[in-house]
Amino acid sequence: MSKFKSHQRVNDIFFGPLERPALRWLAAHMPAWMTPDILTMIGVIGSVVSMGGYLLGRINHLGLWLASLGLVVNWFGDSLDGSLARYRNIERPKYGFFIDRSLDAMGEFLVLIGLGLSPYCRFDIACLALIGYFMMEILVIAATHSHGVFKISYGKIGPTELRVVIILTNTVVYFLGNPGIQTTKGIFHLFDLILIPLTAAILLVFVFSTVRLARELKDIDRQDN
N or C: which end of the chain has fewer CB within 10 A? Predict the structure, then answer.
């Protein structure tokens, strides 16, 4: 942990060419009273708002717009807190890493459980997606501390892209009325049909990345010995 700053941060995402300049601009224009800790809490509030929007969907489909707004607020706080800390050179590697990963997990829990309790997605499918996310979180943390690489994107896909997918799905569901198909296992709505292959892809990435990293670490240990 004493060499935490030496860890390499990898976030090679599809929207990176747009997101990185935007975050640099926002960091440079934040008021003095805005701190990384405040931004982190804004990110959590965004997750709570998103969960509330999905629960509101039981009464009114306008809740989908609130859920999407919450995801945008979550992106703002979650993506900008670290950027602001780096811009102002006030990074706290140990504290920042711990808080960021812990509250990210809480945020994803709120969003996916809210979605599972909404009329738009089966609860079991939402829980499977949440399990897949937590498995990737474990992989990220394990890789960071064993390999010195903090990798939060795989195949150009990171948290930003996943938020965009959810927001787009919210929009389609609002205008098309939650389309679904009837099967012998019950009705599967649009969110289910998106989350099932997405979760399967996450599990495949988890297995492939775990095997690859295990081989790399095994070779490193052999060289060190």
Answer: C
